[in-house]
Each structure stands twice: as structure tokens, then as C-alpha cells.
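Why do we care about 3D structure at all? Because function follows from shape, and shape follows, mostly, from sequence. That is the central idea of this module. The next example makes it concrete: a single protein chain, its amino acid sequence, and then its structure expressed as C-alpha cells.
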Amino acid sequence: MLKEFRCKKCHKLLAKISDYSELEIKCNRCKQINYYVFSSNLEYQNAKQRSNIFTDALHRNI
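And the structure:
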């Protein structure tokens, strides 16, 4: 199953990847450097939730 990776700043789709341990990718649109670390499915879900919480907090402050 491929996982989608979107820019944490502008949400542009950056990649779809199946297996990885670390991923660093720069968004061509906004130049944000995005870094992802994966060690288990549970940690992936927790990281995704933390990212959503962080993004929501940023949008409320703007």
C-alpha cells in the first residue's frame, strides 16, 4: 500500500512511497523541507496526528 506524503506547509502531494525508514523531501512549490521518520505503523499514525495538530495550530494563528 502506498502512503501519500504531502508538504506540511502547503499540502502539495510530494510522493507516494510504500516502504521507507526516513524520508526528506523539499517541496517545489513553497520550498519547505519535509522530514519523515517511520519505524512502525502505530508511530506513523501518531506522527500523522501530530502533524495535523501542528498544522491546525498554525492555521489558527494566521
